[in-house]
Amino acid sequence: MSPVYTRVRFVNLLAFGLILFLSAGVVVQSNAQTTVTGRLIDRETQKPIKDARISVVGSSVTVFSNELGYFRILIDQKALVRIEHEEYPVSQEKLLLEKKYVIELSRQGSRPRV
């Protein structure tokens, strides 16, 4: 093999490796997940809502609120969650990373408070 061919091949392999490395970093960053903490309360009484089902739309991730209305759920950078409880209408809320939420439910719907 000629020295020029060897050098070109080395540069091509180096470029390919660099592109592969950078694209792997993008994939890891796009799948970043974190745990978000929230609390469900009744809008009118301000009392906690226990045993509500909170699930990430489009995934199998589901949790339930505890006796104080708190929940912790693992989400991607942004997630749409569905909240279900037998005494309230089903609602959906958009959650973002690194936030703590208080979500007020009422018979008329819900409203998040950050």
Q: What is the top-level CATH class of the largest domain?
A: Mainly Beta
Name the strands of the widest sheet in spatial order: 4-1-7-8
Largest sheet: 4 strands, mixed
Tally of structural domains: 2
End-to-end distance: 65 Å
**CATH T-level topology of the largest domain:** Immunoglobulin-like
The amount of beta strand, in percent, is 35-45%
Structural class: alpha+beta
Give the helices and strands as they follow along the chain. HEEEEEEEE
Helical run tally: 1
The Rg value, from CA coordinates, equals 23 Å
Helix content: 10-25%
- Shape annotation: rod-shaped
CATH-scheme architecture of the largest domain: Sandwich
Could you walk me through the main structural features you see in this protein, from its secondary elements to its overall organization?
The chain is α+β, with helices and mostly antiparallel strands and 114 residues long. It has two domains: 1-31; 34-113, Immunoglobulin-like (Sandwich). Helices cover 25% and strands 45% of the residues. It has one helix and eight strands, in the order H-E-E-E-E-E-E-E-E. The strands form two sheets. Strands 4-1-7-8 form a four-stranded mixed sheet, with no helix packed on it. Strands 3-2-5-6 form a four-stranded antiparallel sheet, with no helix packed on it. A hairpin with a 2-residue loop joins strand 7 and strand 8. The radius of gyration is 23 Å and the shape is rod-shaped. The protein starts with a helix and ends with a strand. The model is unreliable at 25-29 (pLDDT under 50).
